[in-house]
Amino acid sequence: MQSPFQVQFIGATGTVTGSKYLVKYDRYKILIDCGLFQGIKNVRRRNWSELPFEASAIDAVLLTHAHIDHSGYLPALMKRGFHGPIYCSVATKALCKVLLPDAGYLQEEDARYANYKHFSKHEPAEPLYTEEDARKVLKQIKDVAADEILSLPGGMTAQLIPVGHILGASAIRLEYQGKSITFSGDVGRENDLIQYPPQPLPATDYLVLESTYGDRLHEQVDAEQAIADVINKTMSRGGIVLMPAFAVGRAQLALHIIERLKHQHRIPDVPIYLNSPMAIRATELFYNFHDLHKLSEDDCHRIDEMTHYVKTVEESIALNQRKYPAVIISASGMASGGRVLHHLKTLLGDHKNSILFLGYQAAGTRGDSLTHGATSVKIHGQYVGVKAEIHNLDALSSHADYAEMTRWLEKMPSKPKQVFITHGEASASDCFRRHLKDRFGWQVDVPEYLDVALLD
Ligand SMILES: [Zn+2]
Fold first, then answer.
1. pLDDT band at 238 (very low <50, low <70, confident <90, very high)
2. Domains in the chain, start-ordered, CATH in brackets?
3. First to last CA, the chain
């Protein structure tokens, strides 16, 4: 059946997760991003609901970047019948090899835990997908060079534009019969310490923009000094600094800053542990893609020398029994899962310790509760009292704030016909909509879940 050129918003509406856009044209259907919903239960439930399209009818998927909220639904899509190619940048493909099997493993763990505790409505609880399902996806991924014009079925073309954020992250510009639409994906910072700034977007008729920080500016603080202060204060009390960090991107940034601080003797020579198998693999990849980030081979070598990599479960348990000053970097960044939970359980109850979050904390996550002053949080079914000092260094976020986004958009050669704001909490998206309308006079809308826009 023939369809006019159109886009449907299937995720990242009123939330920062579950990015998915269905583009239809002629008799073809492609998906831009295929992310998992995360955070609040009502949002997560959407991972299990019926799709508003036939997975088997999708001709191709294109990924902006590897973060799970943009790629983590792929194995579920394949289980439901998708068997086409998945296109993305070289680094995104490499990162997916690390992130997707891990996401499958976590789904299996969750199901095992639900069965053990009998709290699932479904007996037995099934994982959304398994590690093996995720490995099947990897075979379908094909990489696209940054300057390549990719040909898709029916005369559609696609182009990737690097946007900082994390290794390999790109905006995607589609063109069909002279009409174009560009999806920003997640947009990085103009002055990130390790990622290059986002490249200016080419002219586009339609533009889908993220709005994680659509209503906020990052604090203008010296992030290095702030980290030095937390570490020094905690060390003087004989405590441990725990940094929950996103395995890809912020974990490497944290290591780089700590290495510089040590090198400049601004913090004591305490041991630094990276306790996340996924972050360890992402760090190794980082060392391989030298042309895609700002760190030199020397920088990478010094970080490698400094860091104790905690690989096995036994090493992780031993680290968790440590009583002496140390800095531990562990995932996940919003404390929604992973090894960081075991550390939180042991460290939260002691005022000597500090927990230092490094960026956006989505609604409903433990990171969100803790940075908003929760006096206790539930971990593995038990409440844990909070006595440790909690900090959130938002200045190290990997997302541009609305002023940075605006300066990036100013570089566009011409005015888009229409802009769609997605990937934000409802209030952030609406603030960004008003801001862009006032600043540029653009036609800007905030689509809702399942809205369709014709691209004529
Ligand atoms: Zn991202």
1. very high
2. 3-216+398-454 (3.60.15.10), 223-396 (3.40.50.10890)
3. 18
CA of 19 to the centre of ligand 1 (A): 10
Helices (H), 313-440: 313-320, 340-347, 366-371, 402-410, 426-440
Taking Cα atoms as reference points, which of 96, 83, 59, 77 lies closest to residue 11?
A: 77
pLDDT digits (tens, 9 = 90+) for 225-236: 999 999 999 999
Ligand 1 center–CA 248 separation, angstroms: 9
Residue 318 Cα to ligand 1 midpoint, Å, equals 32
**Given pLDDT bands bounded at 50, 70 and 90, which one contains residue 118?**
low
Ligand 1 centroid, distance to 186 Cα (angstroms): 5
pLDDT digits (tens, 9 = 90+) for 315-330: 999 999 988 999 999 9
- Taking CB atoms within 8 Å and a gap of at least 24, the contacts of 441-447 are 442/415, 442/416, 442/418, 443/417, 443/418, 443/419, 444/418, 444/419, 444/420, 445/418, 445/419, 445/420, 445/421, 446/13, 446/420, 446/421, 446/422, 447/9, 447/13, 447/420, 447/421, 447/422
Q: How far is CA 137 from CA 38, 129, 220, in A?
A: 20, 11, 41
pLDDT value, residue 120: 59
- pLDDT at residue 451 in the model: 96
The token duo for 131 is 């590690």
Distance 165 CA to ligand 1 centre (A): 7
Report pLDDT for 125: 80
Minimal CA–CA distance to 362: which of 370, 354, 374, 351?
370
Convert the pLDDT of each residue in 271-292 to its tens digit. Answer: 999 999 999 999 999 889 989 9
From residue 225, give the alpha-carbon distance in Å to each of 95, 258, 338, 395. 30, 10, 28, 12
* 212 within 8 A of 423, measured Cβ to Cβ: yes
Give mean pLDDT, residues 291-309: 95
Ligand 1 centre and the CA of 398: distance in Å? 8
